[in-house]
Structures are given as structure tokens and as C-alpha cells.
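user: can you give me the structure for this one chain? C-alpha cells are fine.
assistant: on it. calling the predictor now.
[tool input]
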Amino acid sequence: MVSRFMKKVSKKEGQAPGTLVFVGAEKDYEVKITVMDYDEKELREKEVTAFEECFPYRETNTVTWINIDGVHELDIIERIGQHCELHPLMLEDIVNTNQRPKIEDFGEYLFMVLKMLKYNKDDNTILNEQISLVLGSNFLFSFHESKGDVFDPVRERIRKCKGRIRKLGPDYLAYSLIDAVVDNYFTVLEKLGDRIEDLEEELIDEPTTKTLHSIYTLKKEMIFLRKSVWPLREVIASLERGDYELINEHTLPFLRDVYDHTIQVIDTVETFRDLIAGMLDTYLSSISNKMNSVMKVLTIIATIFIPLTFLAGIYGMNFEYMPELHWKWGYPVAALVMFSIGVTMLILFKRKSWL
């Protein structure tokens, strides 16, 4: 679990600032680069085998979206940085997938880091992937830690020329990608909400040790989710304030909308955290009540047997001159007295609502 919070950043120990060192899970596939170059009238889309094939698009007046799936091949990232004159510290952050969501202004381009979430149904855990965006005056780079993303709806809008995305610049494209990431948070939260409801029913019906383990696992997931989502609010707030020249004024209302969505996500995360904390308290109270019930029953049994043990102890003594020892009805009378004492005490406990 700890590895999900802190990846092996020790690989960077002793390296000079700006040195490219991939920090993340090992990958065994080739980096995939796709290009979408468009304006209001025309769209060109293709997958390239080498980044050098993207060079001609930089000189056009169209919007160019270059998507890179995989940042583990450092030579490709280095070539991109050299051609586009990207700051080496930014390239270092792209290949270090342990970054928190943030935004940095490098003058000619903006650098943003986001966390894309996925819900793993197999073990009910949340997976996150780092997405780095580099926004320029007529281009946008998106770097993915691995294959697969949540940007297919954005691609379809570009292909079918839906909405205003083909009419506006790369800043609106960047907004669209951020919005897609935030919308996917709601999908993950819905699945978590269903899981919390199931766990609540289990907690009420018959909590077990497995229930406690599930609560603690869910609590860790919420910590992990909060760590991925909370800093994003600062990023979007900085964008929607209009502090950056690359963000046009017509994009600001849309950024304010996605900021509101981010606040909703954070509120939902905090609500879920409170629910899980309450579930843990409920579980502990339930176990404590069960223990108290068991102890009450055992105490009542012990209390009933105290006088019976006293009588049995007296008649278990082997003194020679005990008058009842040779009495014909001694045993039946002693048994009847003991039984009467037990029944009387049970009736008394019942009237006092101790049973």
C-alpha cells in the first residue's frame, strides 16, 4: 500500500537537477505517439512511429494535439524536449510519475500535472496514472504514464466537429482534457459509494473480522484518493483566475465550471471519509455491545450459581455430625431448595430488566 503513495524516488538520489530518470512501474511496451492537427474546417489525425514526424505541424497556424502514451523511453522524451525547447526540470517531472497535481508557467508554455483515476473491480482498489500537459500558443502535448485514458469523448468531439472545440484554441483543448479527468472522478466515486453502501448493510446485519478489514482498506483508498484530488483544486483555481497569458478570456467561464466540479468531488471525498470513520466507530461499538451481552449472560449465570455453590460447599463437607446426612429426604430437599433459588433469581433479574 505504501508504494502507491511513494514510488521509488530513490532512483534519483545523487543525480543532477534536470537528469531524466523514470520513476514508476516498469513498462514492456513501445511508446505510442498520436497527432491530431485541426482547425474549424480541417482535421488531420495519424499515429507516428518517430517524433520527428511531428515537426512540420509546429509551423502551422492550426491547433496541434500530440499525445504520448508511455514516458519510460527517456530518449524520446529527451528528443521532444530538445526540439520544443522544453525546460529540463519540466522533462524531469514528466518522467517522475510521483508528482502531485500542479501548474508551472515557463513563459512560452504552461506545464500541468494531473492524476487520472481508474477503479479496479478485481480487488476494489483505485489506480492512478500521472498525466502531464504542456500547453503552448498553438500546440498541446499530453504525456501518459501508460496506455489508455479518458479522452476518447474529446477525440470524438474533434472528429465530428461537435461543440466549440474546433473553433477555439489549445487552451480550450486543455480545459476539455482537464474536464474529462474530473468527470471520470465522479465515475470512480459512484463505484466507491456503492461499495460503501454494501459495507454499511454488512455492518448492520452481521459484522465480522472481514468487515473490519474492508473498512480499513476503504479508509486507505480514501486517503489515496484525497492525495490525488485535493491539489487539483489549486491548479484549476490558478487557471480560472486568468493569471496566464496562454489562457484566453473566453475559456475562463469553462474553467470556473470545472473548478465547481472539482469542489464537488472534494466534498464527496470528505463525506465518504466521514462515513467510513463512522462505520469504524459503529463496528467497534457493535463488537463492544456483543461483548457486553456475553459478559452480562456470564455474570448472571455466575451470580445464580454463587448461592448454589455455597449450599453445595456446605453439604460437601465431610463432618461426621451433620444432621441432614442420614435424613431420608435430605438430597431431594437440597436439590429443590437449589432449584427454587435459581428460579427466584431468574424472575428477579427479569423484573429488573437485566435479562
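assistant: here you go. Residues 252-315 form the longest helix (64 residues). The beta strands are 32-38, 43-48, 63-69, 102-105, 110-120, 125-135, 139-144.
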